[in-house]
Amino acid sequence: MRRMCLMLVFLLIQGLTVPAFCDVPQTMMYQGKLTNDAGVAYNGNFDLTFRIYTDPTGGTMLWDEAHPGVIIEKGLFALILGDTSPLDLPFDTQYWLEIQVNTDITAPRMRFTTNPYAFRAAIADSCAGTGGAGDDWGAQVVEHNASLTGEGTVAIPLKIATDGVETNHILDGVVTPEKINISGGTDDQILKIVSGTLQWASDVGGGAGDDWGAQVVEHNPTLDGEGTAIAPLIIAQQGASDGEVLK
Question: What long-range pairs does 99-105 form, CB within 8 A, spacing at least 24?
């Protein structure tokens, strides 16, 4: 029995870009190398037959295609699978490829890897939508954290949730005066927290200094006053009276 050293140089899906009607070509390019048991490469014309099965041994044959008279030079060959028998399999599970050279069947079967499963794009959700109501996710769920809300469909798109943007999401220096909405504010007002809400409010309270509320300006005996417009902080007299000097 001949030995197939099938060096999978590439398994390239032709037409990976899905056109408007999802008409992904049901073909793939295949390259390999044919040698005997001693590793000597074959030359000549060979009849190759390719079959796809559900299992590495036994199983059900799902697809087959014959390529008569394939030219092999120094063991190398290249051909297109699906050229005469379209590869119309869903590629939603593991498949195995069997190759027959003339009358000899190579062993073991080869397991398909990633590339052929790009055929799955033929039934991509973007082409199986439900008339503008969003993609048909079925039982699938778009997972997201509390910073987003929505389902990821046309009807209920994903968006940033209320309070979804936190301090660590904002780069330093990106919030400039030009980006602050001044709507609702008036002259001499500032953005401040009032009763737990950020809003425009007066910077001072009634001309008597800032509205400290329950806050207290702490100072030692070298200062006097409350830190307001009415009772500003001043240097304390430290017990000296008018007309007295330090001596």
Answer: 99/4, 99/6, 99/32, 99/48, 99/49, 99/50, 99/51, 100/48, 100/49, 100/50, 100/51, 101/2, 101/4, 101/34, 101/46, 101/47, 101/48, 102/46, 102/47, 104/1, 104/2, 105/1
- The phi, psi pair for 187, rounded to 5°, reads -55, 145
Domains of the chain: 3-125 (2.60.40), 142-174 (no CATH), 181-238 (no CATH)
- Residue indicated by tokens 């006097």: 224
The H or E element spanning position 190 is strand 189-194
pLDDT tens digits for 21-65? 445 567 888 888 888 888 888 899 999 999 999 999 999 999 999
Q: Which two tokens stand for residue 89?
A: 């399999």
User: Are 130 and 136 spatial neighbours (Cβ–Cβ below 8 Å)?
Assistant: yes
The string of pLDDT tens digits covering residues 55-104 is: 999 999 999 999 999 999 988 898 999 989 988 888 888 999 999 999 98
Secondary structure, 3-state, 99-138: EEECCEECCCCEECCCHHHHHHHHHCHHHCCCCCCCCCCC
